[in-house]
Amino acid sequence: MRKNWQTSKLGEQVTLQRGFDLPKKHRLKGNIPIISSSGVTGWHSESKIMGPGVVTGRYGTVGKVFYSEDEFWPLNTTLFVKDFKSNHPKFIYYLLQTINYNSINAKSSVPGINRNDLHEIEIKIPPFDEQLEISRFLSDLDNKIELNNQINDTLEEMAMTLYKHWFFDFGPFQNDEFVEAELGMIPKGWEVKTLGDVSNLLDSKRVPLSRMEREKREGIFPYYGATSIMDYVDDYIFDGTYVLMGEDGSVMKDDCTPYIQYISGKFWVNNHAHILEGKNGISTEWLKTFLETLNVSPIVTGAVQPKINQRNLKSVKFLVPDDETKDRFNNKLTSLFKKVLANEKENDYLVKIRDYLLPKLLSGDI
Questions:
Q1: pLDDT tens, position by position, 293-303
Q2: Which of 278, 282, 285 is nearest to 319 (CA)?
Q3: Structural domain tally of the chain?
Q4: Which domain holds residue 13?
């Protein structure tokens, strides 16, 4: 720790307060973010706290920390900083990320944090000018990560617009001859095939690991479930670019489209997500874009536990154009996703730098 830093208790530097109840039936349409223990979970017409503000989970999801530059409503599942006591809000945001919340987690079936216990945690605090310097450095990293995410959102929107223009509106082919087919009128020379014809389904390679097994095998490789990363383990079973699609449990969104994950690199998958890659001239990126528009309600089975089985998935109709069109579309689409993957790779690097430096910067070691 640097000489001009001081050791203190958290409660001597900030005052935390429990958030406020706001049942869904009382929420009114507005642009004020409602922050729960897992982040922004809704919007309301009224705020409780003016920004800048810092929020962390009190129970439910414990250990995540959120920053709001503008006014917001912290729910009663959270603790928010009521008084920064002349400390820099962004520095406190980063400081709270370094706390070991498991050490003070209330002994209950539901994870929970006692505010008084949190106030007693010993921390190290630098002078305000150093707080500002540290906050700016870490914010620069976070801002670059966020910018890359925004660019990727735009690139994926461009990919979807391109797909719909070609295969929903047939924009480039309006002057071509059309013929009647199973999916309606399509350009002459195109075919209606199935998803099984244009993709490899690699479900047989999946290996589920229990939570206990994953705890024993903690590592650097992401372990995916039906909708997201669940853990990190010490090995991988896939290496490449694939599409994951929820198989059971979480299989369909409110708009009847499936849960899709576009993954590149080395990773592990459990048995709750189908894993696909393109074949026969159909890129994996093409599969991803197609599946994101698919209404899966006709192929979902099971009332209690929704499921999309392999047979139904393989039977989904897929429109395949002539070879020249296929190549043109693949080239346009894959060029967009190459940029997406490059940005994701850069973000992985930036996150590693940030996560390595954050505890060292906040403890005064560097």
A1: 999 999 999 87
A2: 282
A3: 2
A4: 6-125
